[in-house]
Amino acid sequence: MLGSTHGTLTTHSRPARVVACGELPRSMVHNASAPGEDLDVSGRPLHAPVPDLDRFFRPESVAVVGASDSEGRPNTGITRRLIDWSERVGARLHPVNPGRPTVFGLPCLPSVADLPEPVDLAVLLVADPLPVVEQLAESKVKFAVAFASGFAETGEDGAAAQNRLADAVRRSGRLRLLGPNTNLNAFEDFREDLEGPAIALITQSGHQGRPVFALQELGIRLSHWAPTGNEADLETADFILYFASQPEIGAIAAYMEGLKDGRGFLLAADRAARNKVPVVAVKVGRTETGARTAASHTGKLTGADEVVDAAMRQFGVIRVDGLDELQDTAALLARARPPRADGVAVYSISGGTGAHFADLAAAAGLKLPALSDAKRAELHQWIPEYLGVANPVDSGGHPVGDWRGRKIIDAILADPAVGVLICPITGPFPPMSDKLAQDLVDAAEATDKQVCVVWGSPVGTEDAYRTTLLGSSRVATFRTFANCITAVRAYLGHHRFVSGYRSPFDDAPRTLSPSARKAQGLLRTGEQLSEHAAKQLLRAYGIRVPREQLVTSAAAAVRAAGLVGYPVVMKASAAQLAHKTELGLVRVGLTSASQVRDAYRELTDIARFEGIKLDGVLVCQMIEQGVEMVVGMSHDSLFGPTVTVGLGGVLVEVLRDAAVRVPPFGEDQARAMLRELRGHALLEGVRGSPPADVDALVEVVLRVQRMALELGDGLAELDINPLVVLPRGQGAVALDALAVCR
User: Fold this and answer.
1) Residue 311: in which H helix or E strand, if any?
2) How far apart are alpha carbons 88 and 541 in whole angstroms?
3) Residue 280 host element (H or E)
4) Which residue among 249, 400, 555, 692 is least crowded, i.e. fewest CB within 10 A of its CB?
5) Are 372 and 416 in contact (CB under 8 A)?
6) Residue 16: which pLDDT band, with cuts at 50, 70 and 90?
7) Nearest to residue 423, comparing CAs of 449, 448, 386, 403?
8) For residues 140 and 138, what is the distance between their CA atoms, to the nearest angstrom?
9) What is the pTM of this model?
10) Distance in angstroms between the alpha carbons of the first and the last residue of the chain
11) Biggest alpha carbon–alpha carbon distance for the chain
């Protein structure tokens, strides 16, 4: 028996940002008001143009402002590195410093106004870059890099200085700025002798990119490194847009401490998903300590982590926790071909090793298909009958040392259900491990399926590892079980995601619906609506509510109960009244006129005692069966409107079983939200209860999303709790609702 109680599930609460959630990244602002631009119903762009960063990474001419060749000065070492880098990329370099005629034998100019030619890139080695940026704008320089610190990462005064810097860049109409608070990583010496798809790297902390950069020493190609720093102008989203459009790039690896603009990030991730380019990211801020530390480093908010996590998942960004996971996952995704199947086969020379790895892989959600009877019979030609070959496959060791070893590997790879073969080698045992490694490499070269090896030796100097395995571009080699499983799960998940990806921005509403026009008249600026008024909002969007009447006398309550039909629920109704149950302002299961009269007097007496001014008492139909859910919308400081669905009722804050998405999203994501719930089985029917009307629940989620998009400027928060989902085919009913206007 379900009463109309109300609890609130708040998914995030963050302070106001320097950059408002609706502010657009600069790469989108230039054309924001262009005729015919594709905008959603709230006026935000649905596509982001790809910034042209070619001349940033491959300039023809470079100016170094503040160049020095005086020994012992920090600028001297930086100048020397920039000269070397310019020579490697074929750029002409012009030192700029009013205090010296030459720098390292190159003519030194007194100011940027004296540059002899248009400059693609200016590197600013000065404590205060603002005056130089203003001069660069007049000189029509395309890009600038500001190394100086002391901006938003230091507090309010620094944030104000950074805003002035950003304003100067914006006024230029052409200049793009990297930094401030950045470093030399963009000008590293990338190996030119490596082949194959490359990893492009984006970091807000340069040192955190070092493990990925070092992958070159393992034969994995890197093409670009963008150290974004405080992102006064150019930001992570700009580089994702650019890298996802470069044919040489197989994966983007990112280390992010905060996001400048949530919408811009989602548009960039959408571009990468459309182009089938994987984005693997470490995003700091899972804990309050991490969020606070990151904010002090780059001056950006990390965002509510559950919203960030959901938004990344929604647009196919692969989130990992460690830098080792970042490098291993990005390396696999960059170089691996699309899988032919989603099944994983585990092959080892030890039953214990195979069982251990298979247990971890299955727990992580990898699919380990049982090999067919015919395949097992084939494998038992070379493997003793008493050893298990169903998957995992245990060779027992001895067949690895002769011709049978390659036969076993080829047979497993030939199974149509197998898309990935993983061979964990927990330790070296030459010559057997040498032969096994070579057979795996040879088999990988002969198949279009992915072969992965876990080399468990802590030494890492063995020839089988350093030469044979790392020398192969077709074998992905890992050092730990966990990193291999993380990477393979991401690899299979990415290809599933992009194979069926349809951009939610393509289907986002572009014009206001008739429901929105009706609902806008119900909003009251800065007020929390009464339950009765909140339900009128729901009705405007076609969300079903119980039969009910608002009454102002005991006699009217009795008449309303007769019309609604016994049993009934009675609730006090007033603006600013959120938690009625806690105040004793709800009565359920009333079956007679006398009970209704008594309940009316009790509710009005309590309200009078509590100093609550009622707009009346609701007499409501009582819904006696169904699954209690909560559906709501609120605003995130980074992403704007968000939609939440979870298990509802009075225990909503205790259970905290909810999923969140950032609009726009489609029906597939709404259903995915339900599958993420720990209590999802309740919707399928448990202990004899019938399956719930999931289709009706999905429809409510999508209608609330429409409200979030159309009423976002006027509606701060909406909670429907409980939304009772009736048995299949009978719909869903919003028993209570809370709406807070902006």
Assistant:
1) helix 305-314
2) 61
3) strand 279-283
4) 555
5) no
6) very low
7) 449
8) 5
9) 0.90
10) 35
11) 101
